[in-house]
């Protein structure tokens, strides 16, 4: 009886693990790596309809341009006023998902007046999130 329960539990664990792995990208990342927005700060007021600087931070990984496959590297994507996309697909490229495939670690953006969210998501050489995904906390800025 104990063997049957243990086998069933092991089978369920293997299934859950396989299901979890299938929902993230194929490129591995260190478990302790993380991205962060160095500037602006959460809750900060930024100028509306004028360019302001956004600085990208990354720990325990390196930055490499799109198309470059090197262990523990990727490139930044800035998400504006949106949630994280599916982790097993290429990150969209539109006004809410900005790609920095040349390996940039900062940019300037303009936002209309109001409250906005910013978040970073690392992508591999094919713009697919890593396994595990490497992203920043979502911050809020107020454009005035």
Task: Please characterize this protein's 3D structure.
The protein has 144 residues and is of the alpha+beta class. It contains 1 helix and 9 strands, in the order αβββββββββ. The strands form 2 sheets. Strands 2, 4, 5, 6, 8 and 9 form a 6-stranded mixed β-sheet that branches. The protein is elongated. Residues 54-141 form the DUF4399 domain. This is DUF4399 domain-containing protein.
Please provide a brief summary of the model:
It contains one helix and nine strands, in the order αβββββββββ. It has 144 residues and is of the alpha+beta class.
Q: What is the assigned CATH homologous superfamily?
A: Immunoglobulins
Give the count of structural domains: 1
What is the CATH class name? Mainly Beta
Indicate the proportion of strand residues: 25-35%
The CATH topology name reads Immunoglobulin-like
As a whole number of angstroms, the C-alpha radius of gyration is 18 Å
Number of strands: 9
Distance between the termini: 67 Å
Largest sheet: 6 strands, mixed
Label the structural class.
alpha+beta
Number of helices: 1
Instruction: Encode the helix/strand succession as letters.
Output: HEEEEEEEEE
Low-confidence stretches: 1-22
Portion in helices: 10-25%
In round numbers, the mean pLDDT is 88
CATH architecture call: Sandwich
Shape: elongated
Keywords: Signal
Pfam family, one: DUF4399
Domain DUF4399: 54-141
Protein name: DUF4399 domain-containing protein
